[in-house]
Design a protein that fits this description.
about 90 residues, alpha/beta, 3 strands, about 20% strand
Length: about 90
């Protein structure tokens, strides 16, 4: 299976989980990524964010922090544990 397709499916499950257990208010998913801004992976994440917003009528948005701006892998994991990030591409 294509890695991008698998990534999409994984995040869709993640979003559906939040939609089920979150009130009808808007949800912003904060995602840290080590991929550089403008890379093909970054572009794919931005397209996925746009699709999520469209599918949910704007109730789910994704804020992407590309290029390791939130830190390295250990920093991202720590930030997910304390709630500063919701997801990370490690």
């Amino acid at each position: 299976m294509n890695i991008k397709a698998q990534l999409k499916k994984t995040f869709l499950v993640f979003i559906l989980f939040f939609l089920v257990f979150t009130p009808l208010s808007a949800l912003t998913v904060k995602l840290g990524s080590a991929f550089p801004e403008g890379s093909s992976w970054d572009s794919s994440l931005k397209r996925m964010a746009a699709e999520w917003s469209e599918i949910t009528g704007g109730r789910v948005k994704m804020r992407i922090y590309p290029g390791g701006v939130v830190g390295d892998q250990a920093d991202m994991i720590r930030k997910m544990r304390i709630g500063q990030l919701d997801a990370g591409i490690l």
